Amino acid sequence: MRFAIASFLAHALTAASSFTPRSSLSSARRSFRTSSSMTASTLTTDVSTFLDGINTSYEQLHREFELQFWGTKMALSGPQYSTEELTRTKGEMEDFLADEEKLSKTRELLKAVPEDSVEAKTLKMLERTFGCYIMESEEAKTLRAEATKIEGGLEAARNTLTLGATIDGKFEEMSSVGLRNKVRVDPDEATRKACYEGLTKIGDFVTENGFVELVKVRNRMAKKLGFLDFYDYKVSNAEGFGKIALFEILDTLEAGTRPIMESARKQFAAEKGGESALSPWNQGFLMSGDIVRRMDPYFPFEKSVEQWGRSFAAMNISYKQATMDLDLLDRKGKYSNGFCHWPQPAWVKPGGTWQPSTTHFTSLADPSAIGSGYTGLTTLMHEAGHAAHFANIQMPSPLFAQERSPTSVAYAELQSMFLDSLVGDADWMAKYAISREGEAIPWDLVAEQIKATHPYKVFALRGMIAVPYFERALYEMPEEDLTAESIKALADKVEKDIQGGLSARPLLSVPHILSDEASCYYHGYVLAEMGVHQTREFFLNRDKYITDNPSVGPTLTEAYWKPGNSEPFLSLVENLTSAPLTGDAWVAELKQSVEDVLKEEKESYDAKLAQCSSGTPDTDVDLDMRIRIVDGDSVLADTDEDGGFLMTCKKFEQYVQARFTKA
Fold first, then answer.
1. Least enclosed by CB within 10 Å: which of 245, 427, 558, 574?
2. DSSP readout, 110-144?
3. In terms of Cα–Cα distance, which of 383, 309, 390 is closest to 355?
4. How far apart are the first and last CA of the chain?
5. Residues in CB range of 54: below 8 A, 6 or more apart
6. Which pLDDT tens digit goes with each residue over 30-83?
């Protein structure tokens, strides 16, 4: 791994060095006419005026788009939300960023300001950002607009798709999340198989409703801009290095873990009753389905918001006066993937005024489903990790704190995945995996989970890398070969090659592949997971623990969060951990014996349990943030109205119990 990453590190670091009238965009453009000359006496004013105009106009356009994104994805009832308005506001924001006059002016000012000044850092970021959006080819611009239109139609159609499974002769409607959950935990094999088959219908639907044409148009656009294909275009803009360099890393990880995967599949089949155990509807359940059911009482979903807040507060994580809307419950018409976006980016305004972030984040929990508490809490920790990261970016422009290119996918996902990894730690469970009766999860159950899952953790890694390998192959297919059938066949082929067999989560059911923002994105999770293991190793070596470690928040804030996209992902990881990014820590964990894992985890579990028994829970949790828990258009709880964080959690808890407790 070290050689593959070192080979392109130098290149990567260099490359990375309320609604308003439609007329707002054109007026914003007129504000940035390039001056023909500049004198020293006017330089300061010129730079300040330019940057202030960029920041103010972008902030407005960003907000308009993000409000539409939230409204349409959450299926809100307001008449102001529509696919047409989403397309329009996205187009206006991207047109603003694709204005060649702004890039020209940026470069002119860069030549005039001191190289080590704050202004230079901001202008360099703007140069990178504008470069990601400017399309010199008019044909590419037309194709971009066409792709956006196709994507909007596909997304609208996908939101109306009725999913479910025929169980005992009766069709039962379920979301994709509900189907995946049953595949994982339902004790009846026929039910699991029916739910898996329900998930495969997503691939049939999307390939028959615009996805084939979307792939073609995306590729045409990217090639008009001089890239190898759409994947090369996306990764180059987001990470600062191209597709070839990316897959040098992934190929090394793939090759290094293939023998581990093959051995694990043989062991799994031998232990679980033969080859049928490896069927996509059996593997997850036989690995841990029964344990998930037995662990379920210790992860009551209604307590998840409180446990997240207590955990983050104990790590000294602050949201710096942010406002957050959480839409946590699954419902018909809601977007089928958790996400976290920011209609208001955090930034430091001229004169030092702090602009806190506004966060919209969502998950898809069904509190009545077995296992929903664990998955819901993990999603909450993940998306709240994103929110903490972006709430703490302290740079002089909102463009340092937006999640699109040139912000690295791997950089963004490292923060969230590091924090959601805690849910699997024995000492974290000793304190936070608490039943409704107040009992901590017993060690014997934690140990059973380790024994059942640790030998097969490689399956998750292989499932993760399958997505970028599929998308690479998809965008490398000759256009004349792209059909609904060929894409579905390709997905099956990649699953079998990378994962050893068909996946419990069919590749064409992964929502990321559809949307422009998330397509050709999943490699970021792989690079981030490498960073997660390396960052965990750093904290454990330095501090000996992570759960409730009060230095975690300040360390992450200073090392990872404050800079925003001003620093490359690879250098941020190396600066904190004092080592280049590698997969060494990840692979070392996969190779660790079950006995060694049990010994380490038992020690940390016992220590945390003893600590909890000698103390009392905090009576107040302060995340320095206003939180509104919503369900679509309805506000369920609000820290400003309900007396603080814990009272808001109590109100949400009561709502969930009243709505989902079976009579």
1. 558
2. HHHS-TTSHHHHHHHHHHHHHHHH--S-HHHHHHH
3. 390
4. 55
5. 32, 102, 126, 397, 399
6. 444 444 445 555 777 899 999 999 999 999 999 999 999 999 999 999 899 999
Tokens of 188: 């009846």
Question: Do 523 and 510 form a contact (C-beta atoms < 8 A)?
Answer: no
Separation of alpha carbons 283 and 343, rounded Å: 40
Q: How far is CA 226 from CA 134, 173, 213, 230, 245, in A?
A: 13, 45, 20, 10, 17
Q: What is the DSSP string of 393-445?
A: ---SSGGGG-SSTTS-HHHHHHHHHHHHGGGG-HHHHHHH-B-TTSPBPPHHH
Indicate if the alpha-carbon torsion angle 230, 236, 239, 241 is positive or negative. Answer: positive
- State the pLDDT at residue 616: 80
Residue 44: predicted pLDDT: 76
Residues 566, 571, 574: CA angle, nearest 5 degrees: 145
662: pLDDT strictly greater than 80 = no
**Rounded to whole angstroms, how far apart are CA atoms 384 and 381?**
5
Q: Could you identify the residue written with the tokens 């914003």?
A: 28
Over residues 459-488, the pLDDT tens digits come to 999 999 999 999 999 999 999 999 999 999
- The pLDDT value given to residue 481: 98
- Per-residue pLDDT reduced to its tens digit, 291-307: 989 999 999 999 999 99
Q: What 8-state DSSP symbol labels residue 475?
A: H
CB 595 within 8 A of CB 436: no
pLDDT at 496 over 90: yes
SS (H, E, C) 241-260: CCHHHHHHHHHHHHHHHHHH
Distance CA 451, CA 446 (A): 9
Mean pLDDT, residues 124-145: 92
Backbone angles phi, psi at 495, to 5 degrees: -60, -45
Share of the chain above pLDDT 70, in %: 94
Structure tokens at 513: 């592949």
Tokens in use for 88? Answer: 């329009």
Cβ–Cβ under 8 Å, residues 625 and 637: no
Distance CA 531, CA 342 (A): 24
Q: Are strands 339-344 and 322-329 parallel, antiparallel or unpaired?
A: unpaired
Mean pLDDT of 133-153: 92
In this predicted structure, which of 207-211, 490-494, 619-623 has the lowest mean pLDDT? 619-623
Count, residues in the chain: 663
In angstroms, rounded to a whole number, what is the distance separating the alpha carbons of residues 93 and 257? 42
Structural tokens at position 395: 């740079």
Cβ contact 362:328 at 8 Å: yes
What rounded mean pLDDT belongs to the chain? 91
Structure tokens, 535: 């960052």
Q: Do residues 636 and 653 touch, judged by C-beta distance below 8 A?
A: no
Residues whose CB falls within 8 Å of the CB of residue 549, separated by 6 or more in sequence, listed in order: 315, 539, 543
